[in-house]
Amino acid sequence: MAGSPGPSFQHEGCPAVNTIPILRRVIVAGLLAPLAAAAAAPTTLHVGPSSTLGSGITLAVGLALDDGNPDTCGTATDLAVHAGDAVNFCYTLTNDSTRTLAYHTLVDSVDGSIFALMHEDVAPGASVQFNRIVTATLGVEDYAATWTAQDQEPGYAAAPVAFGFTDIVDSGTPLDLGDDGATGVTLPFAFPFFDDASNLLTIGNNGTLVLGTLDGFSYAFNDPLPYEPDVFMGGPIIAPFWDDFANSSGNVWWRVDGTAPNRRVIVQWVRPHFLQTGGAPAVFQAHLGEDGSLQFHYANTVFGDPANPDWDNGGSATVGLQNVDASIGNLYSYNTPSLTPASALAWTRTSPTAYTTATSVHLDVAPALVPPTIAVTPDPLAAAGEPGGAPVTVPFVIANQGEIGLEWNAIEAPAAQPAAAPRQQPLSPLATRKAADDAGTQDRWRTGHTQVVSLRGASTEGCDESTPGIIVHDDGMPEDGYRDGSGLFTIAGYVDRFTPSAYPATFTSACVSFLSSEAGTSQAFQLVVYDDSGWDGGPGNLLAAVDAVATDIPNTAQAAFVRVDLSGLGISVASGNVYIGVQFDPMDPGTSFVASDVNGEPNAGAGYLMRGNPGALGSWDPIVDRFHDYHALLVRAVEQLDACATPSDVPWLSLDTTSGSIDANAQATVTATLDPSQLAAGHYEAALCIGSNDPAHPRLVVPVSFDVSDSVFADGFDG
To answer: Where is the composition biased (Low complexity) (predicted)?
Structure first.
């Protein structure tokens, strides 16, 4: 394995020396993090003073609140936390035996298997540290850890043996397998393999055998073993040379040799690599003995294709074994040139020496703390003064309504100006239809409402065409609605593209309309904002997701908008487009549809749809590809120039403090000073950009207005 340079460790009484690089593995709630992330830093490996060897292993588990350093090793075995806190579990295993322990399994009483047969060499007397981050949960407090360490991997080990290839091209039974094809054969004896035995064998064209079935598979794209998407080949795997082979020449044969109880089955492949354009085919065999012996023999492993030299000697192949449930994978090599012509491997059962130890820790979990929650009053700030007059002070309060400390800072910015005028897509009749309406799909609201009358309805305040800065693609009258009615997905996403009129821009709110097949329906959804970094300028990175609920959804073609506030999310668009719309569970309650306009120019909203499930979202595809009369979703967005993206000093505005910390359920008063001494009569505007660690409102924009006029005292206020 490769990793970043290892840390130093100390022998007692000796200067520091460098360790061999070892990967640190970070585990989150029982799931192994991606290898790329795990390789970010080395394991902490310490060699301590000599101990009495031969007694097995010892395990210590220390707890600490996550401080951002994944290698932190706390010493507490009982820790008071709040639900939602991230806790660093630090496991330190010490090898007290006389053997190097190379394969490790950790099982937790709460999260189950943390890792299984992780390969890490721990020499006698050495220790290895392993960290994982756990999110504290109410009602879950006791964690019992069981660590098993063993000197060998269970299953089989491979070693070179004398080359003994027996060509069966003329004497074996040809199988005439197609590309990626496989066929089942019945052996004259039950071959013992791992903890079972069977006389059923599937022989695959791609250099694989599957025991225990006549209906296994032979996939073209090889993977390291073990590999388990639902035990993907249909049973335990024997892979002498799993690669992507063609059927353009050669063949695959099998033959039984010998007499009971010393029979053996030979399977031979003579196959070129897929799309091979020159050179020679691979030639290799698997020998399965009635006594359980298993050997691979390689007559030729060099394809010799001048365009693909990396294929040679197993450079694009998997060699190894896997048991029936993929809990054990004995991998000899993966995409590594480890095989040479006229060579052979024999697989023999291993007899690991294993040691097991257990220990427990306790979390005292209290209810979750409310996160920092910022509130500013008054909002906006307003004051009046005289031209050339004295400064005016305006106190305002920043309150923390959460139970965790609030960190805030403020900067000044010139006033953000709204868009010059509302923009509405000009209406025009459809010139052509892309294709005939798909009236039979259950994903369309109009399927059950063919005779409804379109009603414009009254738009929610802030969602109508007169709202400054609003971007409107629709005509306010929905004729159709979309969702996913297949029942295969729990997330349906629909977004329209929005282009700001100037940059940098922000979006302060968005509106969406649903239709329903039943009156009075409510629909929980997320208002989502994506950037345009996806394929071909489509939706890419998620910028914001706000939970909302649409209630009393109409079951007639009537616009009923739900307005969602985006002003505190800090969305800033420097260039290009954003995609704004909804994601919701289309089957809960299963009667809601995102309202759509099918009049006017086609694809005015340049919308995309996506279907998926939690943790497995699908790709985004143009809505018009599925719903051919799509014009625009009834999704509207309100833009504003993002003054906070380019802050600068406002000469007449200052604050007595620009940052601070506010304890839980406390507040602080900040004084704004508005100075008219250098100002002529007029109306002045600015903004305070207040950033904080409030996860729901990382940035607030507080407008500031200042009226400078001689009329301040015109009513005789000064006596």
So the answer is: 415-431
- Residues with Cβ within 8 Å of residue 370, at least 6 apart in sequence: 401, 402, 403, 404
The class of domain 52-152 in CATH terms is: mainly beta
CA dihedral in degrees (209, 214, 217, 223; nearest 10)?
-30
Q: Are 478 and 553 in contact (CB under 8 A)?
A: no
What CATH topology corresponds to 374-416+644-708? Immunoglobulin-like (2.60.40)
Tell me which residue of 114, 100, 67, 59 sits closest to 86, measured CA to CA: 67
Tokens of 34: 């991606």
Q: Write down the H helix ranges in 227-377.
A: none
CA torsion 437-440-445-448 (nearest 10°) is 120
Q: Counting beta carbons within 10 angstroms of the beta carbon of residue 386, is it exposed (0 to 12), middle (13 to 18) or buried (19 or more)? A: middle
Q: Mean pLDDT lowest for which of 102-116, 184-198, 223-237, 684-698? A: 223-237
- Strand order through the sheet with 578-584: 542-553, 521-531, 578-584, 491-498, 608-612, 621-622
The pLDDT tens digits of the residues spanning 25-59 come to 222 222 222 222 222 222 333 323 333 345 699 99
CA dist 93 → 3, 318, 376 (Å): 21, 32, 51
Summarised one tens digit per residue, pLDDT across range 505-534 is 999 999 999 999 998 899 999 999 999 999
Q: What does the alpha-carbon distance between residue 534 and residue 544 come to, in Å, rounded to a whole number?
A: 16
Q: How far is residue 350 from each of residues 150, 305, 325, 465, measured CA to CA in Å? A: 11, 38, 18, 75
Please indicate whether the domains covering 52-152 and 374-416+644-708 agree at the CATH topology level: yes
Report domain extents, the chain. 52-152, 157-351, 374-416+644-708, 445-641
